[in-house]
From TrEMBL:
One of its GO terms (molecular function) is serine-type endopeptidase activity. The active site is at residues 151, 225, 586. Residues 1-20 form the signal peptide. SUPFAM superfamilies: Subtilisin-like. It comes from Gossypium raimondii (Peruvian cotton). Keywords: Glycoprotein, Hydrolase, Protease, Serine protease, Signal. Residues 142-625 form the Peptidase S8/S53 domain. Residues 702-794 form the Subtilisin-like protease fibronectin type-III domain. This is Subtilisin-like protease SBT2.5. It comes from the Eukaryota. GO terms for cellular component: extracellular region.
Length: 802
């Protein structure tokens, strides 16, 4: 299997016997390559190794000369080290027929064009072409910026975090972090790319959940999550992603030149706020520029206790210290008000699906084909394989649920399953995590099956199947569509002969599974992922949603390749791998953290508010074709709103040069806290050390954010925004797309603003018609060189003044 998997680096389709022209094929032999032998013969000399390599190459030549007619082929290469095989250029299909039917040949595969690939999100976001060259190239993109990761630690042995010979230590005296050593984390782990590493576990230990054997008492990542997020944000450039011997492309962080500071406060089981708060404290003290936090509370309290929660306050003070905090919005979508990152001083990130897809196809013997999921190799050759249902090839006294879920090799009758495609069923056991696709794969490999097919249980219905992005070493497909599952069973039952007792005695149904590891690029706009948490924000003490737009911005979060820890106990689907394909707002967050590092490098004096403003006002609401961005919701696509994607999908090139920004200071955040309806002003002073104004006319909607949210518009509401020009002198005109039921006026309607100048905008929202729901609009400030977009979200409670 290892040889087969390694070989599959070079192909994606099976042989086509219709010859329009001469073709190149690769032939794998049954004999062992030199690498396999030298691992057993450790003391083989260099001379002996060379001799053996030449013997393998000669055997290929002898094999071809003895079986094929002279002139019908040309041998191009002999594979001798990792593979035992050869590449051959042939001019007739007769040659292929001979090879396939000759003893000693393992498999024959058509050669295909190989293209240079990446984890795709850097290309999808335009970094290599438009951003990195402006920042000193790949190695310099993010240089001088430190990103702190409060996560599960880091795997320092991963190539994404190794230091190249050309890179040195951070050329700055600002960062003062230290490097804790310990189990699996020697002093050499802090190598110049990783410039600080500490871990926090006192809270976890006190709560009785820390397991020193499993969780590791050092900054080492025993889970995988922390390594994944760190490599997305700041991993090295052009790191090959090879999983089960297959090359999925080259990975790169958003800011390959940025430095990484690790603050391990999360573990396989999660973490505790006490540890996270301590980690935030240390990170800010150390001097990080950006904090990436792909975690949040399990539930969000309502009223004043939400914003005055200890972690929220700690993050407020981090912002005050000039550290940009980027946090995952949560994975509670598509339900509304499911965001767990809610404070206005935090940049909350939604997750999107990119235009890269991994689809697996099964072709039935009757010509029907169905698409499913599963990153697996194809069935060998172009032949069809007999299909057998798990229940039909197991001992009759086996429990039906155990049989159908294919979790145990014991009930299977080995002669009946050998080299067949086995149908398994996605039962309730999978939903409760008592069963897994990973175990199915292990079972099938042990019993000698050719592959497996997972169909949906009609009693479960169209659920989101867990583990479908698992990389597999055996051909497999998950038919996560009830119609496809039913069609497969119909074909199978019609082609299976049974005796009077209903026992299968002959299997005539056949199929082959195509390669599921080749990515497809659709070119479509990003789509809001179904799991990504939605706004509106938390409710205040009066049970109204707070006047803050959440999430803030959207970034890729679905099916992201990035670093992992091979010995991780955190995710059974990727155990033993150095890379993982994972989805979640946890993956979207480091995209924004890395992009923020690029903006910080370009504009080192900008604070967190300016960077967030730049990302929001330049975000995309439409795709390249001009069509609105869509969102997954209850098995359908609908037009996305700011509660789905915030200001929109990140546009890195435009965020580097926003034109205008909205500044917010600590004083403004305090005014916001004092204005939250129903809040205890004494609690605010106790929490932040600053008293609320005696006569506070400030409303939450007045917080100078790059958005306007009004949760209860009655009559008219005046909202003030201040803008600052961070570019050259320019004239802007104001254009308004009004929310339904609202009339919006802005003064001034046009204005000139000098370099580093500021302007005051007065917006008046007038309720025209009660909507009893949020409606959305947009304020667009158009200049000659810049377009600044500000999303509007308004709930009209009454059209008349109170």
């Amino acid at each position: 299997m290892a040889l087969f998997s390694t070989f599959l680096l070079c192909f994606s389709t099976v042989i086509n016997l219709v010859f329009a022209e001469a073709k190149v094929y690769m032939v794998l032999m049954e004999d062992k390559p030199t690498f396999s032998l030298t691992t057993k013969q450790k003391y083989m000399s260099d001379k002996d190794y060379t001799v053996h390599k030449e013997q393998i190459s000669s055997s290929h030549t002898i094999f071809l000369e003895s079986h094929l007619q002279k002139g019908s082929y040309t041998k191009l290469y002999s594979y001798t080290h990792l593979l035992n095989g050869f590449a051959i250029h042939v001019t007739s299909k007769e040659v292929l027929s001979i090879l396939r039917n000759t003893t000693g040949v393992r498999s024959v595969h058509e050669d295909v064009k190989i293209e240079k690939l990446t984890t795709h999100t850097p290309d999808f976001l335009g970094l290599p072409a438009h951003i990195w060259p402006r920042l000193g190239g790949v190695e310099g993109a993010g240089e001088g910026v430190v990103i702190g990761f409060i996560d599960t630690g880091i795997n320092p042995n991963h190539p994404s975090f190794m230091t190249s010979s050309s890179s040195g230590f951070l050329n700055s005296t600002k960062f003062k972090g230290k490097c804790d050593t310990g189990e699996l984390f020697p002093s050499t782990a802090c190598n110049g790319k990783i410039i600080g590493a500490q871990y926090f576990a006192h809270g976890a230990i006190a709560n009785g959940e820390f397991n020193a054997t499993r969780d590791v008492s050092s900054p080492y990542d025993a889970d995988g999550h922390g390594s994944h997020t760190a490599s997305i944000a700041a991993g090295n450039h052009d790191i090959r992603v090879i999983v089960d011997g297959f090359d999925y492309g080259a990975a790169s962080g958003m800011a390959p030149g940025a430095r990484i500071a690790v603050y391990k406060a999360l573990y396989t089981f999660g973490g505790y706020m006490s540890d996270v708060v301590a980690a935030v404290d240390q990170a800010v003290e150390d001097g990080v520029d950006i904090l990436s936090l792909s975690a949040g509370p399990s539930s969000v309290p309502s009223g004043d206790s939400a914003f005055l929660d200890v972690l929220e306050l700690q993050l407020l003070f981090a912002t005050k210290a000039g550290v940009l905090v980027v946090q995952a919005a949560g994975n509670g979508g598509p339900s509304s008000s499911s965001v767990i990152s809610f404070s206005p001083w935090i940049t909350s990130v939604a997750a999107s699906i990119t235009d890269r897809k991994y689809n697996t196809t099964i072709v039935l013997g009757n010509g029907q084909s169905f698409t499913g999921t599963g990153l697996s190799p194809p069935t060998d050759g172009e032949i069809d394989y007999n299909i057998a249902a798990a229940a039909d090839v197991c001992v009759r006294n086996a429990t039906i649920i155990t049989v159908d879920s294919c979790q145990n090799p014991e009930p299977f009758i080995r002669p009946l399953v050998y080299r067949r495609l086995i149908i398994c069923t996605y039962t309730f056991e999978y939903e409760y995590e008592a069963a897994s696709i990973a175990t199915v794969a292990d079972t099938m490999m042990e019993i000698g099956a050719a592959g497996f097919i997972i169909t949906l249980d009609p009693n479960i219905g169209p659920e989101v199947v867990k583990g479908t992005m698992l990389t597999l070493q055996i051909p497999a497909i998950v038919l996560n569509d009830m119609q496809a599952s039913s069609a497969l069973w119909e074909y199978y039952n019609a082609n299976t002969i049974r005796d009077k007792r209903g026992q299968a005695v002959a299997f005539a149904a056949k199929a082959r599974i195509l390669d599921g590891r080749q990515a497809l690029y659709t070119g479509q706009a990003p789509v809001v992922a179904s799991y990504s948490s939605r706004g509106p924000d938390v409710k205040n003490a009066l049970m109204q949603t707070v006047d803050v737009l959440k999430p803030n911005v959207m970034a890729p979060g679905t099916s992201i390749w990035a670093a992992w820890s091979p010995d991780s106990e955190g995710d059974k689907y990727v155990k033993g791998q150095s890379f993982a394909l994972i989805s979640g707002t946890s993956m979207a967050t480091p995209h924004i953290a890395g992009i923020a590092a690029l903006i910080k490098q370009r504009h080192p004096k900008w604070g967190p508010d300016a960077i967030t403003s730049a990302m929001m006002t330049t975000a995309d609401r439409t795709g390249h074709s001009g069509a609105p961005i869509l969102a997954e919701s209850s098995n359908e696509l609908i037009q996305a709103t700011p509660f789905d994607f915030g200001a929109g999908s990140i546009n890195v090139s435009q965020a580097m040069k926003p034109g205008l920004i909205f500044n917010v200071t600590f004083k403004h955040y305090v005014q916001f806290l004092c204005a939250v309806p129903g809040i205890d002003v004494k609690s605010v002073k106790k929490a932040v050390g600053v008293a609320c104004p005696t006569k506070n006319k400030f409303k939450c909607s007045d917080l100078n954010l790059a958005s306007v949210t009004i949760s209860n518009l009655v009559g008219k509401r005046k909202v003030i925004r201040y803008i600052k020009n961070v570019s050259h002198k320019e004239k802007y005109t104001v254009h308004i797309k009004e929310p339904l039921g609202v009339n919006v006026t802005v003064v001034p309607e046009s204005f000139r603003i000098k370099r580093r100048g500021s302007r005051r905008l007065r917006l008046v929202f007038e309720a025209i018609e009660a909507t009893n729901a949020y409606t959305f609009g947009e304020m667009v400030l158009k200049g000659k060189k810049h377009i600044v977009r500000v999303p509007l979200a308004v709930y009209v409670g009454s059209a008349s003044s109170s």
